[in-house]
Amino acid sequence: MEEDIEYFTKKVAAALGVNPLRLGAAQRDFSDRVREACADNGVDFRRVRVATETVETLLQTRDQLHRARAQSSGSGDFSIGSQVWPGAAKLIEEMAELQQLLAKLIATAGKTKYWGGVDLKERVKEEMADVEAAMMFFARQNFSAEDEECIKKRAELKGDLYEKWHAGQDPLP
Ligand SMILES: [Mg+2]
Fold this sequence. Notes:
two-stranded antiparallel ribbon, 173 residues, mainly alpha, binds magnesium ion, elongated
């Protein structure tokens, strides 16, 4: 029985991330309490040990699964569904797709018919929508409503400035 209690308290200490050697009196007190609780409730301490081992195995299995997942596919940070800047990866991907199409438009000297019968104007339109969707998702997930309002205001000001430049009403910097 003493051996079981020592085993149990060591496992509990390990699960809690506490050094069992430093538990001292608290460890003994805890062991007594566990033993008393088992006796009071008619529980066989050996069953508690089996339960402890089962929980420990489950926790180890869970940790192994998390480690294996992280090694095989990365942490997933910056992706949709993650906790770290969710949507950043998608936004980069969509911006790159739009850039690719704009580069093709430059390559054709502005003609919208691309090799393979691709309609560049249609494709640019689609990718602009993708960028906008990714940007809106990114803003919603990573910024407060107040921040989003600031982004919207700045975008409006910038948009107005570009229109002025385009109309020749404001000198270029
Ligand atoms: Mg796209």
